[in-house]
Design brief:
There is one protein chain. By secondary structure, the protein is of the alpha/beta class. The protein contains 9 helices and 9 strands. It is about 40% helix and about 15% strand. Helix 2 runs parallel beside helix 3, helix 3 packs parallel to helix 4 and helix 5 packs parallel to helix 6. The longest helix has 17 residues.
Length: about 260
């Protein structure tokens, strides 16, 4: 088997990794993690204000400056802000590679459409936190059906549904017929069968590796390796599917 080269498309600079020294140790000890893509430290909780969103993105950019050959980042946005599109463009101009949406608004709400349209105009992917909780979602947390609805509204968009939608059997079925939606299974719960179902339903070109770092990197990667797939499929999940999502201008740094 060829040496692994992994792009972790869903990570955070929080918990222990709020300390850049811890991040440096992780990168030194894990050369297989060729790239981490930070989805910010999500300052301000569920409903961050404009200053907190800007500070989150500035934190991501600071990590990129410290580790320019190993770290890239998403631009985190609260779509309810009047400054959302301007902040997004600021992030892209500074080197961020796509849009990150969390739980301040559901992705299918009209207030989110201007930032989605800005991402489409820039030809960059959108990482959307998506969950289906048995106990009920947060008031503005996107369900897999929200992801499906907005993907149908914007077939030209490139969407990455985070966490396989939480309830992965439900979430994967919700997007199975949508070729403009990819999925990552990042997080702390890595049940057997999830990646297998994803590859069966979506094919091996629409599944992207993510860990949700500081969740366990190798616990998540191990679930992919357990699938028993060919080296070509492993390389797609770990690396090239994510590269294919990126704007042309951003791809060379990851190859």
């Amino acid at each position: 088997m060829k040496p692994l080269r992994i792009i972790d498309a869903h990570t955070h600079q929080w918990a222990v990794f709020a300390d850049k020294r811890a991040m440096a140790r992780f990168l030194d000890f894990n050369p297989e993690a060729a790239w981490l893509v930070l989805a910010s430290d999500l300052q301000g909780g569920y409903y961050p204000n404009e200053d907190e969103v800007a500070a989150s993105n500035s934190s991501t950019l600071a990590y990129m400056a410290t580790f320019p050959d190993r770290i890239s980042g998403w631009c985190y946005i609260n779509p309810s802000h009047r400054s959302a599109v301007d902040e997004f463009r600021r992030g892209l101009d500074a080197g961020l590679i796509g849009l990150k949406l969390w739980v301040a608004t559901r992705c299918s709400e009209a207030v989110t459409f201007p930032i989605i349209e800005a991402a489409i105009e820039a030809d960059v992917p959108m990482l959307v936190h998506t969950w289906h909780k048995a106990t009920g979602n947060l008031p503005d947390e996107s369900y897999p059906m929200d992801m499906a609805e907005v993907a149908r509204r914007y077939p030209e968009g490139k969407f990455l549904m985070a966490h396989f939608g939480g309830n992965w059997e439900f979430g994967l079925r919700a997007i199975a017929d949508l070729p403009n939606v990819w999925a990552d299974f990042s997080g702390t719960i890595n049940e057997y069968g999830a990646y297998e179902m994803a590859v069966d339903l979506l094919g091996d070109t629409r599944v992207v590796f993510g860990s949700d770092l500081s969740a366990d990197f190798w616990g998540n990667a191990g679930r992919v390796l357990q699938g028993g797939w060919t080296e070509e499929t492993l390389d797609r999940i770990f690396r090239t599917n994510f590269i294919d999502l990126l704007a042309e201008r951003d791809r060379p740094k990851f190859i």
